[in-house]
Design a protein that fits this description.
The chain is of the alpha/beta class. It is built from eleven helices and 20 strands. The strands form five sheets. The chain has a seven-stranded parallel beta sheet with strand order 8-11-7-14-16-17-18, with helices on both faces. A hairpin with a 4-residue loop joins strand 2 and strand 3. Helix 10 crosses helix 11. The longest helix has about 110 residues. The termini are far apart.
Amino acid sequence: EEEIEEEIEEEIEEEIEEEIEEEIEEEIEEDFEREIEEDLEDDFEREFEEELEEEFDEEFEDELEEELEEELEDDFEEDFEEDFEEDLEEDFEERYEERFEEELEDELEEDFEADIEVDIDDEVERAVEEAIVDAIADDISEGLEAELEVAESRIYTDEWLVMAEPSAIVALAEEGYLFETVDELTSLGLQLATVAAPASFEITDARTAVLDIVGERDARVDRNHLYAAGDPQPEQGQGLQPAAALQAVTSTAPTLRIGMVDSRIDLDHSALRAAGIRQRDFVRAQAAPMEHGTAVASILVGASQHYTGLAPASELYSASVFESGTDGRTVATTVALIKAVDWLAGEQVDVINLSLAGPPNQLLGAVLDRVAGQGVLVLAAAGNGGPVAPPRYPAAHPGVLAVTAVGADKRVYRLANRGDYIDIAAPGVNLQHARPGGGYGSSSGTSFAVPFVAVEAARRLKTSNAEAARQALFDTAEDLGAPGRDPVYGHGLLRGYQR
């Protein structure tokens, strides 16, 4: 009995021990595996998130945001930061969230055997690069080309100018100054004299010497700069007629007196034959270009069976100042511009439409100030140098209303200048206009936006003074881009006024 009991006890003990050991081992294994898995998963997620954040912050934010903000923040703030960057970041973040989840699942399924590796998607990087290039390459390259072209127009001639009251010019002559020409600026009460200059000539020295002689009397001394016409960019297709681009401008338009400083006009064109245009030349050449002046004039007062300008019943006083230079470029001298503005002031025009670009000039600036003091609004094209181009004159001169161009989609013309001097935007992209010799074309440029503001300003001047009319244009404009005035659209898009 004792032996049997011992055997039974031993067997029972062995069976119990085996069962207990198996249960303990299973529980230990399960606990261990669960703890290991949880630890590994936590470690992986933490490491993956940290590496992902570092990669995203360093490679995306540092490279893209810093590079773009430093180089393009001032010139592409409206076009790039608001439209492109926000969409790109959202798309980039969505892709990374999906990528994070997929890679996390893959790594867990493989029992965390592989090392954690987070690679920036090469295709996304290429897409970012290509998107940036596509967004700005054309603007920058073409803008730089336009900048080089305008830079050529800033070459000085071998002349310098003195503009002053007649008594000051007499005083200079008595001191030995020999003037090649002296022109009377009847409307402004001034005289404009030209003096030949040697190659070593310094304008600052001459200015100091002249001011020492004339004393307190008002006098201006500067170079006889050259200004370039705002060459239009040809567009494909028929283009949009001016009357359809901003309907309210043309409705019930009264007879306006509009001054224009541009090239000659083809008065035989069917759209201009019946228009009330008075043209006067201030150029020396017999054969002068007509392309630009004909286009702008048709937008202002053109009318035919198939074409309608902005104010066909108005009187247009056109001062022709452009001639073809020896290099084939269309240029105008400071002398021609000053004499043209003086003539327009004498004709008592309501507004003066300028479509040209060049450097600042003390004499031209003084003339524009005098005209503004007589209640005339002067409007000028902002320039087609591109987003990174420097300010253009006379548009950037204080008191001149600088006009930029937008398309039918209300987006700024891609080659339009930007800057704090931009006042207002108007239609100027893919506009239909007359061409010398007959027929029509379509072009884009800030030059074609100026007539819209000129007509609307002239209409407002019928019932208010220049300052009130100018402010009304700004107050009623449709705000575009960044809230308030901005360097891309100025105060916003011109709105037509109906009495």
